Amino acid sequence: CIDVQPLRVVVDPPVASIAAGTALQLRATTIFSDGTSREVSNIATWESSAPTIAPVSNLGVLSGVAQGSAQITASVAGLRSTPVPVVVTAPEPVSLTIQPNDTIVGVAVTQFFRAQATFTDGTSQDVSVRATWSSSSPSIATVSTYGQVVGVSRGIATITASPASIARLNQ
Fold first, then answer.
1. Cα 169 from Cα 75, distance rounded (Å)
2. In whole angstroms, what is the distance from residue 68 CA to residue 106 CA?
3. Which of 10, 75, 138, 157 would give a disulfide with 45, using CB separation of 3.0 to 4.6 Å?
4. Distances, alpha carbon 138 to alpha carbons 102, 106, 114, 151, 165, in Å
5. Is 37's pLDDT higher than 70?
C-alpha cells in the first residue's frame, strides 16, 4: 500500500495583471507525493491580501476593483500556495462612441464631434482631445486632431475616432 500525500498547492497563473473592471479565473492544483495532481479550484479556500483592490471569489475568480496590488493564496487540506502577486492596472477602454451620429455638414461649415469612451470599470469619459481622428475622404470632409470637422465638398465621408492613446484620466 502506497501512502500518497498532498505535497503542495500551486496557483496558475503564478503572476497576474488585470485592468480594473475585469476578472480572471485562477486555478488551484494540488500536487501529490506520487507525482499526480488534481485541480481543486472549487474546493480551495481563496484569500486576497487586499480585497478592496483585488478580491477573489470562493471559486477562484479574481476581480480587479481598483488600481493597486495584492497577493492571492489558495489553501487546501492545510496546505497553502505560494502567494500570487497581482497588479490591478487602470481601466482600459472597451468602446468609443462618436457624437453627433449621421450628421450633415455643409461645405465650408464647421461641426465639432465628440468621442466618449467607456472603460472596463463601467465609467465613461469624453476623450475627444485624446482620440485619433480621421476622415474616410478628406476631399469631402476634413477633421482636426480635436474632432473639428469641416465640409470641403459635396459627398459622403465617414469620420472615425480611435482610442490609440486613450487612458482614463484620474478625476
1. 38
2. 49
3. 75
4. 17, 14, 18, 9, 22
5. yes
What does the mean pLDDT of the chain come to?
92
Q: Name the residue with cell 475627444.
A: 128
Grid cell of 56 as nine digits: 477573489
8 Å CB contact between 83 and 14: no
Instruction: Say which amino acid occupies 169.
Output: L
Query: 68: left (phi > 0), else alpha (psi -120 to 50), else beta?
Result: left
Count of C-beta atoms within a 10 Å radius of residue 15: 9
- Nearby residues of 104 by Cβ (< 8 Å), 6 or more positions away: none
The amino acid occupying position 82 is T
Question: Model confidence over 25-36: pLDDT tens digits?
Answer: 999 999 999 999
Q: Which amino acid is at 13?
A: P
